[in-house]
Amino acid sequence: MKNLRALRALCVSGGLAFAAAALPAHAQQQGMPGMDMPDSAHADAGGSTRAFKAADERMMHDMNAPEYTGDADRDFVAHMIPHHQGAIDMAQAELKYGKDPEIKRLARNIVKAQREEIAFMQRWQKEHGGN
Questions:
Q1: What is the CATH number of the domain that holds 74?
Q2: Domain range for 97
Q3: 61 C-beta neighbours (distance < 10 Å), count
Q4: How far apart are CA 74 and CA 71, in angstroms?
Q5: How far apart are CA 95 and CA 20, in angstroms?
Q6: Which of 19, 25, 31, 119 could form a disulfide with 11 if both were Cys (CB 3.0 to 4.6 A apart)?
Q7: How far apart are CA 38 and CA 42, in angstroms?
């Protein structure tokens, strides 16, 4: 369990927040050989799983929404904003359902950092005639 927490933290801090959301479900299914463990195996799995899945779906939808323009800067910013918002949504689910104080601290830091980066990218878009 400690290794799973470390891996989850590494994924989230490395910008792979979506991978961290998938880890608990995968780890649950690795329980006993030949036995699938449903999401309900954990007390908060229903709420947290729904929150993580909703964040994933919203992020993937929003990342697919902007058209590519061929301008690397504009395309990068347009697709990174929903990616960062997805990280915020997942971090907020962690803050609501999580128990580990270190991971909750990480989630708070992610929310703060990603909000600042989104604000920067939105300012950049306005200054450069984007969205």
A1: 1.20.1260
A2: 2-127
A3: 11
A4: 5
A5: 14
A6: 19
A7: 9
